[in-house]
Amino acid sequence: MKRRGFLKLFGSMLLLALHTPPGAAAAESLQLVFTGDVMLDDGPGKVIASGRDPLINFAQLLAQSDYAIGNLECPVATTGTAMASKIFTFRAEPRSVDYLKGRYQALSVANNHAGDYGKAAFVETLEHLKANGLAYFGGGRNLTEAHSPLWIVRNGVKIAVLGYDEFKPRSFEAGPDWPGVAWSEDSQVVADIRAARAAGADLIIPMMHWGWERESQPSARQRQLARTMIDAGADLVVGAHPHITQGAEYYRGKLIVYSLGNFVFDSFTTDATRTGWLLRLNLDKRGLISWDTVGAFMDEEGVPQRMPGAATPCGKAGDKVPRLCVNQ
Predict the structure, then answer these.
(1) Which of 36, 29, 64, 31 is nearest to 312 (CA)?
(2) Residues with Cβ < 8 Å from 208, sequence gap 6 or more?
């Protein structure tokens, strides 16, 4: 190589080194997306029956992520009988899964509607998801499967996502040899987090179905359990169920998003209960790099609409409190 060419190359390499943070070249990252409650019966079910797509307005955002996760707030089945003791019961048609695949890579089944039509319908739901290439977590054919993590390995990062329900009825809970959801007994949750770390997880994320419906602030129980999970080794906590967003905070530098609210759901009448968030997490092996939320407003049919100009929570590593960012 000629002397001039060598000096030019050396100078370029030196300039790059001076502007590259230590470890940045080796670090890999991914974007993980979470959405709140996805209920595909009633209004959204009618949308699907008419041949329309209830997720069309967020298809691009979901597709842009490396991995997308939602909370499936209904069985997807043709079997079973609605529980007579429940005021609201849901069951979506199997064709609904066509609108989930390609949008989500995994769905939590740890919620208080998963067992609305009994154990056979719950198992049928798991079969439909699996047949369409959709992973599930927070439930299974027995207690061991229900408490097994969803493993995500992308871009050099190994993540364990755990799902739990703690909103009645507890009769949906999985047992040693019967199907159901993972119940959030504190000691079991802590054991699951520690087991995931021992199994090689770089990051551990519990997704919770918790809190009181229509309450805009997390309960003392939610705050206690979130801190217990982080003290046990969780890297951040994501929640749903209250049908309303509940804000976010940091504890020991770890992010807690208490409730993402509804995402696909009808029959709600107030702005608060018709507004949810899509959560975007940018992560590497060391933890959270940055995050933001995108507002979703459900129309009369329960279909989420984009909310350009809405200010919703966001942040980055090192922040002490969440900030607000404006959606595009």
Answers:
(1) 36
(2) 163, 164, 166, 184, 222, 225, 226, 237, 238, 239, 240, 241
Domain ranges in the chain are 30-326
Let me know if 79 is exposed, middle or buried by CB neighbors in 10 A (0-12, 13-18, 19+): middle
CATH number of 30-326: 3.60.21.10
3-state secondary structure the chain: CCHHHHHHHHHHHHHHHHCCCCCCCCCCEEEEEEEEEECCCHHHHHHHHCCCCCCHHHHHHHHHCCEEEEEECCCECCCCCCCCCCCCCCCECHHHHHHCECCECEEECCCCCCCCCHHHHHHHHHHHHHHCCCEEECEECCHHHHCCCEEEEECCEEEEEEEEECCCCHHHECECCECEECECCHHHHHHHHHHHHHCCCCEEEEEEECCCCCCCCCCHHHHHHHHHHHHHCCCEEEEECCCCECCEEEECCEEEECCECEEECCCCCCCCCCEEEEEEEEEECCEEEEEEEEEEEECCCCCEEECCCCEEEEEECCCCCCEEEECC
0.70 surpassed by pTM: yes
pLDDT truncated to tens, each residue of the chain (328 aa)? 444 444 444 344 333 333 334 444 346 999 999 999 999 999 999 999 999 999 999 999 999 999 999 999 999 999 999 999 999 999 999 999 999 999 999 999 999 999 999 999 999 999 999 999 999 999 999 999 999 999 999 999 999 999 999 999 999 999 999 999 999 999 999 999 999 999 999 999 999 999 999 999 999 999 999 999 999 999 999 999 999 999 999 999 999 999 999 999 999 999 999 999 999 999 999 999 999 999 999 999 999 999 999 999 999 999 999 999 997 6
How far is C-alpha 40 from the chain's CA centre?
17
